Protein backbone atom coordinates (compact mmCIF):
# COMPACT_ATOMS: atom_id res chain seq x y z
CA UNK A 1 0.00 0.00 0.00
CA UNK A 2 1.37 3.42 -0.94
CA UNK A 3 1.12 5.82 2.04
CA UNK A 4 0.62 8.85 -0.21
CA UNK A 5 -2.33 7.13 -1.91
CA UNK A 6 -3.94 6.28 1.43
CA UNK A 7 -3.49 9.85 2.67
CA UNK A 8 -4.86 11.22 -0.58
CA UNK A 9 -8.03 9.15 -0.20
CA UNK A 10 -8.43 10.54 3.31
CA UNK A 11 -7.88 14.20 2.41
CA UNK A 12 -9.93 13.98 -0.77
CA UNK A 13 -12.91 12.79 1.30
CA UNK A 14 -13.04 9.41 -0.43
CA UNK A 15 -13.27 8.04 3.11
CA UNK A 16 -16.61 9.21 4.61
CA UNK A 17 -16.44 11.44 7.67
CA UNK A 18 -18.45 9.07 9.85
CA UNK A 19 -15.95 6.28 9.14
CA UNK A 20 -13.08 8.52 10.16
CA UNK A 21 -14.76 9.34 13.44
CA UNK A 22 -15.78 5.78 14.19
CA UNK A 23 -12.56 4.15 13.03
CA UNK A 24 -14.47 1.77 10.74
CA UNK A 25 -13.26 0.17 7.52
CA UNK A 26 -13.17 2.54 4.56
CA UNK A 27 -12.68 -0.11 1.88
CA UNK A 28 -11.11 -3.54 1.45
CA UNK A 29 -7.61 -2.33 2.27
CA UNK A 30 -7.93 0.74 4.51
CA UNK A 31 -9.39 1.78 7.82
CA UNK A 32 -9.22 5.02 9.75
CA UNK A 33 -8.84 5.31 13.52
CA UNK A 34 -7.96 7.79 16.26
CA UNK A 35 -8.94 10.87 14.25
CA UNK A 36 -9.23 14.28 15.89
CA UNK A 37 -11.92 16.85 15.21
CA UNK A 38 -9.48 19.51 13.97
CA UNK A 39 -5.98 19.60 12.50
CA UNK A 40 -3.05 21.52 13.99
CA UNK A 41 -2.31 24.98 12.67
CA UNK A 42 -0.19 25.16 9.53
CA UNK A 43 0.72 21.91 7.82
CA UNK A 44 -1.43 18.91 8.57
CA UNK A 45 0.17 15.52 9.19
CA UNK A 46 -1.31 12.04 9.12
CA UNK A 47 0.25 8.75 10.14
CA UNK A 48 -0.20 5.80 7.77
CA UNK A 49 0.40 2.40 9.37
CA UNK A 50 0.49 -0.38 6.77
CA UNK A 51 0.40 -3.94 8.13
CA UNK A 52 0.86 -6.57 5.44
CA UNK A 53 1.23 -10.31 5.68
CA UNK A 54 5.03 -10.33 5.99
CA UNK A 55 6.06 -6.66 6.16
CA UNK A 56 4.89 -3.47 7.84
CA UNK A 57 5.61 0.24 7.70
CA UNK A 58 4.74 3.51 9.41
CA UNK A 59 4.81 6.73 7.37
CA UNK A 60 4.19 10.39 8.11
CA UNK A 61 2.49 12.27 5.27
CA UNK A 62 2.17 16.05 5.16
CA UNK A 63 -0.43 18.28 3.52
CA UNK A 64 0.53 21.88 2.81
CA UNK A 65 -1.64 24.61 4.42
CA UNK A 66 -2.86 25.74 0.99
CA UNK A 67 -4.41 22.36 0.22
CA UNK A 68 -8.19 22.48 0.55
CA UNK A 69 -10.69 19.67 0.85
CA UNK A 70 -12.57 17.47 -1.59
CA UNK A 71 -13.68 20.31 -3.86
CA UNK A 72 -10.31 20.21 -5.62
CA UNK A 73 -9.51 17.59 -8.25
CA UNK A 74 -7.46 14.67 -6.97
CA UNK A 75 -4.61 15.45 -9.38
CA UNK A 76 -4.30 18.98 -7.97
CA UNK A 77 -4.36 17.83 -4.38
CA UNK A 78 -1.58 15.31 -5.05
CA UNK A 79 0.88 18.17 -5.56
CA UNK A 80 0.20 19.43 -2.02
CA UNK A 81 1.04 16.25 -0.15
CA UNK A 82 4.45 14.73 0.49
CA UNK A 83 6.06 11.85 2.35
CA UNK A 84 7.95 13.25 5.34
CA UNK A 85 9.31 10.07 6.94
CA UNK A 86 8.90 6.31 6.81
CA UNK A 87 10.09 3.32 8.84
CA UNK A 88 9.59 -0.28 7.73
CA UNK A 89 10.27 -3.85 8.79
CA UNK A 90 10.38 -6.44 6.01
CA UNK A 91 9.97 -9.32 8.47
CA UNK A 92 7.02 -8.04 10.50
CA UNK A 93 3.41 -8.72 9.53
CA UNK A 94 0.10 -10.40 10.16
CA UNK A 95 1.46 -13.85 9.29
CA UNK A 96 3.24 -13.79 12.64
CA UNK A 97 -0.14 -13.66 14.39
CA UNK A 98 -1.41 -16.65 12.37
CA UNK A 99 1.61 -18.73 13.39
CA UNK A 100 1.31 -17.83 17.06
CA UNK A 101 -2.42 -18.52 17.04
CA UNK A 102 -1.71 -21.93 15.51
CA UNK A 103 0.73 -22.67 18.33
CA UNK A 104 -1.97 -21.80 20.86
CA UNK A 105 -4.47 -24.12 19.15
CA UNK A 106 -1.93 -26.96 18.92
CA UNK A 107 -1.20 -26.64 22.63
CA UNK A 108 -4.91 -26.71 23.46
CA UNK A 109 -5.55 -29.79 21.29
CA UNK A 110 -2.53 -31.54 22.81
CA UNK A 111 -3.76 -30.79 26.32
CA UNK A 112 -7.37 -31.87 25.79
CA UNK A 113 -7.05 -34.69 23.24
CA UNK A 114 -3.53 -35.98 23.92
CA UNK A 115 -2.75 -35.62 20.21
CA UNK A 116 0.29 -33.89 18.71
CA UNK A 117 -0.36 -32.66 15.17
CA UNK A 118 3.02 -31.01 14.60
CA UNK A 119 4.34 -33.93 12.52
CA UNK A 120 1.26 -33.96 10.26
CA UNK A 121 2.19 -31.46 7.53
CA UNK A 122 -1.25 -31.53 5.90
CA UNK A 123 -3.03 -30.89 9.19
CA UNK A 124 -0.57 -28.10 10.02
CA UNK A 125 -1.25 -26.38 6.70
CA UNK A 126 -5.01 -26.69 7.16
CA UNK A 127 -4.74 -25.43 10.71
CA UNK A 128 -2.82 -22.33 9.62
CA UNK A 129 -5.59 -21.45 7.15
CA UNK A 130 -8.22 -22.04 9.84
CA UNK A 131 -6.34 -19.77 12.24
CA UNK A 132 -6.18 -16.99 9.66
CA UNK A 133 -9.95 -17.28 9.17
CA UNK A 134 -10.49 -17.17 12.93
CA UNK A 135 -8.30 -14.07 13.18
CA UNK A 136 -10.47 -12.30 10.61
CA UNK A 137 -13.63 -13.40 12.38
CA UNK A 138 -12.36 -12.07 15.70
CA UNK A 139 -11.84 -8.64 14.13
CA UNK A 140 -15.58 -8.11 14.66
CA UNK A 141 -16.57 -10.91 17.02
CA UNK A 142 -15.62 -12.04 20.50
CA UNK A 143 -15.37 -15.78 19.88
CA UNK A 144 -14.32 -18.11 17.05
CA UNK A 145 -13.90 -21.86 16.70
CA UNK A 146 -10.88 -23.34 14.93
CA UNK A 147 -11.42 -26.86 13.56
CA UNK A 148 -9.05 -29.20 11.75
CA UNK A 149 -9.28 -32.77 10.47
CA UNK A 150 -6.39 -35.18 10.94
CA UNK A 151 -6.23 -38.94 10.45
CA UNK A 152 -10.01 -39.23 10.22
CA UNK A 153 -10.73 -37.28 13.40
CA UNK A 154 -11.90 -33.70 13.91
CA UNK A 155 -10.25 -31.45 16.47
CA UNK A 156 -11.39 -28.02 17.58
CA UNK A 157 -10.39 -25.13 19.77
CA UNK A 158 -12.47 -22.16 20.90
CA UNK A 159 -10.52 -18.91 20.57
CA UNK A 160 -11.54 -15.64 22.23
CA UNK A 161 -10.68 -12.08 21.31
CA UNK A 162 -8.51 -11.98 24.45
CA UNK A 163 -6.41 -14.85 23.07
CA UNK A 164 -5.99 -12.99 19.76
CA UNK A 165 -4.92 -9.86 21.62
CA UNK A 166 -2.36 -11.91 23.54
CA UNK A 167 -0.77 -13.51 20.45
CA UNK A 168 -0.86 -10.12 18.68
CA UNK A 169 0.88 -8.27 21.50
CA UNK A 170 4.38 -8.70 20.10
CA UNK A 171 3.36 -7.40 16.68
CA UNK A 172 1.58 -4.43 18.25
CA UNK A 173 4.66 -3.54 20.30
CA UNK A 174 6.83 -3.73 17.18
CA UNK A 175 4.39 -1.48 15.30
CA UNK A 176 4.59 1.07 18.11
CA UNK A 177 8.36 0.99 17.61
CA UNK A 178 7.97 1.68 13.89
CA UNK A 179 5.64 4.59 14.64
CA UNK A 180 8.21 6.00 17.06
CA UNK A 181 10.94 5.77 14.43
CA UNK A 182 8.79 7.51 11.80
CA UNK A 183 7.86 10.33 14.19
CA UNK A 184 11.51 10.74 15.21
CA UNK A 185 12.59 10.98 11.57
CA UNK A 186 9.87 13.57 10.96
CA UNK A 187 10.85 15.40 14.19
CA UNK A 188 7.22 15.48 15.25
CA UNK A 189 5.42 14.78 18.48
CA UNK A 190 2.31 12.65 18.51
CA UNK A 191 0.17 15.73 19.15
CA UNK A 192 0.96 16.97 15.63
CA UNK A 193 -0.72 13.95 14.02
CA UNK A 194 -4.32 14.75 13.10
CA UNK A 195 -5.32 11.21 12.07
CA UNK A 196 -3.96 7.67 12.03
CA UNK A 197 -4.80 5.66 8.91
CA UNK A 198 -4.59 1.87 9.17
CA UNK A 199 -3.96 0.07 5.88
CA UNK A 200 -3.34 -3.51 4.82
CA UNK A 201 -5.20 -6.69 5.64
CA UNK A 202 -3.14 -7.35 8.75
CA UNK A 203 -4.41 -4.18 10.43
CA UNK A 204 -8.02 -5.31 10.61
CA UNK A 205 -7.61 -7.79 13.44
CA UNK A 206 -5.09 -5.93 15.59
CA UNK A 207 -5.68 -4.18 18.91
CA UNK A 208 -4.14 -0.98 17.56
Automatic annotation (TrEMBL):
Recorded GO MF terms: ATP binding; ATP-dependent protein folding chaperone
A GO term from the CC aspect: cytosol
One Pfam family, short name: HSP70
Tree of life domain: Eukaryota
Keyword Transit peptide attached: no
Keyword entries, A-Z: ATP-binding, Nucleotide-binding
Protein name: Phosphotransferase
Organism: Coccolithus braarudii
Lineage start: Eukaryota, Haptista, Haptophyta, Prymnesiophyceae, Coccolithales
Amino acid sequence: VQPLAVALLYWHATIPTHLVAAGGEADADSAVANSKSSAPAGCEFVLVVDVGGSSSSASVVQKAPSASSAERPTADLTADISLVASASDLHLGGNEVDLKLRQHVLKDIRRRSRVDLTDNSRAMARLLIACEEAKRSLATGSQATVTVEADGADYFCNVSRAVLDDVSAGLCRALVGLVGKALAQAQLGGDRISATLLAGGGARSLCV
